[in-house]
Amino acid sequence: MSVGSDFGNPLRKFKLVFLGEQSVGKTSLITRFMYDSFDNTYQATIGIDFLSKTMYLEDRTLSLSEPQVRLQLWDTAGQERFRSLIPSYIRDSTVAVVVYDITNVNSFQQTSKWIDDVRTERGSDVIIMLVGNKTDLADKRYVVTTESSAFLFVNIQITALPGMESMQETSKEGMIDIKLDKPQEPQTTEGGCSC
Length: 195
Fold this sequence. Notes:
By secondary structure, the protein is of the alpha/beta class. It has a domain at about 10-140: Rossmann fold, CATH 3.40.50.300. It has helices spanning about 25-35, 85-90, 105-110, 110-120, 145-150; strands spanning about 10-20, 50-55, 70-75, 95-100, 125-135.
C-alpha cells in the first residue's frame, strides 16, 4: 500500500456518473463546472473520462468531519458501442446525472432507458438527476418544460454553476426554487410522534 493512498484522507467522496445519448452535452456540463469554460468544437467521448474536484462546503449540512468533499465526475460515452462499459461505473455511484438535449426529442425519450439502467445497477440507493441541456438554444426547443417536469414530477431551475448567472431570465412558471439551508430539527407533537 502506498503512502499516498486514501488511508489518511478525511475527504468524503461522491461519485457522479453522467449518462445520456451521444452529443447531449455531458462533457460540456462537466467542463463548465470544472473550468468555467465552454468549447464550441464537438469531440465525442471515447469510453469513459474521469475528473475530480475538491470543494469546500460553506454550509456544512452534511455531518462531515471536514468541510471539504471530493466530487468524482465520470463522463460516459453516449454511443451504443460503449454501452457495455457503463454498468460497472454506475454500480458504486452516489449520483446519476441523466442528461438530454432540449432540442432533440429522441434524447429525452431515451432518458427512461438510462434511468432504468441506473435502477437496475443501484436500486433505489442512488440520487438520479434529470438535466435538460442546451437551454441557450431555446428557439429550437422540442422538449417543453412541462413535459420534462411531468417525467419526474418537478422541475428545478438552478443557476449555481459558474457562468450561469448571466443566463437570460426564463419563464418561472412551473419552476421550483430550492434554497439549501441547514435542516430544521423535527418538531414533535404531544404524543412524541413526529409524523
